[in-house]
Amino acid sequence: MSTAPKLVAGGGALPRHVAIIMDGNGRWAKKRLLPRAAGHKAGVEAVRRVTRHARAIGIEALTIYAFSSENWRRPEEEIGDLMGLLRLFIRSDLAELVRENVRLRILGDFRRFPADVVALIDDAVARCAGNSGPILAIALNYGAQAELVRAAQSVAARLAPEQIDAASIEAELETRDLPPLDLLIRTSGEHRLSNFLLWQAAYAELLFVDTLWPDFGAADLDAAVAAFGNRQRRFGGL
Ligand code: FPP
User: Fold this and answer.
1) 13-228 classified as CATH 1.20.1250.20
2) 208 SS3 class
3) What percentage of the chain carries pLDDT values higher than 90?
């Protein structure tokens, strides 16, 4: 397989790995005088649209921030709604992921979720285990600082301080079998990384868009990819 970057319409390079902080579900619902749960439900529709379109345009890996390690601070009812949507999503979309040859990855300590959700996730990962196509990584109870602490502990247990380098840390990250992160998108006008992929974002292009996540669709992903294609990446060089 050629290692040259794929080109998109307009001539720019296609990002191999895109990550998204899906923000703005609550504000989307509030604008419509709906409960926050309705915003999250519409957010799942956006997940479906965007994951399908990412596959259609040839993005190798898509990582989505579905539940952060800080989201436990939300009211119990909202956490319950998010767990319910995760159950529904797995039940309704797993067959498509299997059929579409999607490699499913979970980032984060999802074993703290309710036992039935953990079982559904384990089953989903197992059923996608033989797949060889595009990667969908879902961050569930993920926090980058905790990921880095675990990586540091594991490296320190095996290596002397002078042997530790960037590659040895990278090999312990949960993204170790994903392509390098090229493009990180956050929706809803907030300009923060919120403990998401902090190491991996070192050389990623960052894109902050005002669109609320439930309104994000194929055209927005195309626009983000085009914006990426127009950026000059120098990785510290000239
Ligand atoms: C941020 O919106 C969004 C989240 C905390 C959760 C993202 C979850 C989904 C899109 C649905 C679940 C995903 C899957 C894969 C089933 P917010 O609530 O912080 O919005 P706000 O900032 O406007 O209040």
Assistant:
1) no
2) strand
3) 92
Query: Helix (H, G, I), strand (E, B), or coil: what is residue 93?
Result: helix
Q: If we measure between CA atoms, which residue out of 192, 189, 188, 203 comes closest to residue 236?
A: 203
pLDDT at 235: 85
Question: Closest ligand 1 atom, CA of 138?
Answer: 15
Contact 15, 59 (CB under 8 A): yes
Contacts of 179 (CB under 8 A, 6+ apart): 16, 17, 60, 61
pLDDT at 70: 97
The CA distance from 18 to 226, in Å, is 13
| Contact of 140 with 112, CB cutoff 8 Å | no
pTM, entire model: 0.95
Residue nearest to atom 8 of ligand 1 (CA): 66
**Mutate which of 40, 97, 194 for ligand 1 pocket (most atoms within 8 A of beta carbon):** 40
